[in-house]
Amino acid sequence: MSLLEAGNLTVRTADGRELLRDLSFRLARGDRLGLIGESGAGKSLTVLAIVGLLPAGMTASGRVLLDGEPILGAPEWVLNTVRGRRVAVVFQDPLAALDPLMRVGAQVAEPLRRHRGLRGAAARRAALEALTEVRLGDPERIARSYPHEISGGQRQRVAMAMALACEPSFLIADEPTAALDGTVQAEMLALLERLVAARGMGLLFVGHDLAVVARVSRRILVLERGRAVEEGEVGDVLRAPSHPHTRDLVSAARRLHGALERMLP
Ligand SMILES: Nc1ncnc2c1ncn2[C@@H]1O[C@H](COP(=O)(O)OP(=O)(O)OP(=O)(O)O)[C@@H](O)[C@H]1O
């Protein structure tokens, strides 16, 4: 059985416009699928539809199964037990996931309280462990800080610690490194790869940068204007892209890479 299965997933606006059309894919436990496409292709709506967080007025149809259990259209109380415990999402902007008025440690402890019933010292200890696992130096200090007192890279690690605290089997990372600069981005990707491998989680990695998506994914699904246009193993897609849109993405990435190579001594 797949960890996640999306079948004919379609998202419509209130006035009936289809923003995502007939998207179908499967993800096995421990597998890594990259979802790539230009701005506006429908990547974020795919993520929001899976976790039942579409903007007001939009509706999703089709199937989304998690471990064989339908979650699309499931009542809110069911989704509340799924989100954060079985499926976790890390978004591009960690500030959006963090409460500016709450210390980091208390925020990381929150999902542990809600889903695992941890309280007091046990919750604090588990939160510190979660912060240590994402390789944050001096986790005690970080736990005492407010979000604005730590760097952007540290905030994204905190968001990752929150996402992973309850040991979900499925992680969705929606452009998690897009707001970070080069070195911090590379460190974050290495951390993500290590944690996904160590825990055997399924990963849906969303991005617009082919080099980044190809690095962390085993398979890749290309979206164009709300439709899947190509799917395959990363190596195959990079070597022999079959759809014109994929060919454009690959040649753009090659040009960028080639330009860098030429600038190097
Ligand atoms: N709240 C909304 N109301 C109306 N249309 C929306 C809304 N959110 C997104 N859309 C439209 O849906 C389409 C897909 O948007 P989506 O955010 O999923 O794209 P994306 O691939 O994630 O792009 P980006 O890389 O820029 O985040 C776009 O045409 C966008 O304009």
Automatic annotation (TrEMBL):
Q: Which InterPro entries match?
A: AAA+_ATPase, ABC_Ni/Peptide_Import, ABC_transporter-like_ATP-bd, ABC_transporter-like_CS, P-loop_NTPase
* Entry-linked PROSITE patterns: ABC_TRANSPORTER_1, ABC_TRANSPORTER_2
Cellular localization per UniProt: Cell membrane
Q: Where is the ABC transporter domain?
A: 4-250
Highest taxon in the source lineage: Bacteria
Entry's family note: Belongs to the ABC transporter superfamily.
Protein name per UniProt: ABC transporter ATP-binding protein
> Membrane topology per the record?
Peripheral membrane protein
What organism is the protein native to? Answer: Microbispora triticiradicis
Question: What GO molecular function annotations does the UniProt record carry, in alphabetical order?
Answer: ATP binding
CDD domains reported in the protein's UniProt record: ABC_NikE_OppD_transporters
Q: Which UniProt keywords apply?
A: ATP-binding, Cell membrane, Membrane, Nucleotide-binding, Transport
Q: Give the SMART domains listed for this entry.
A: AAA
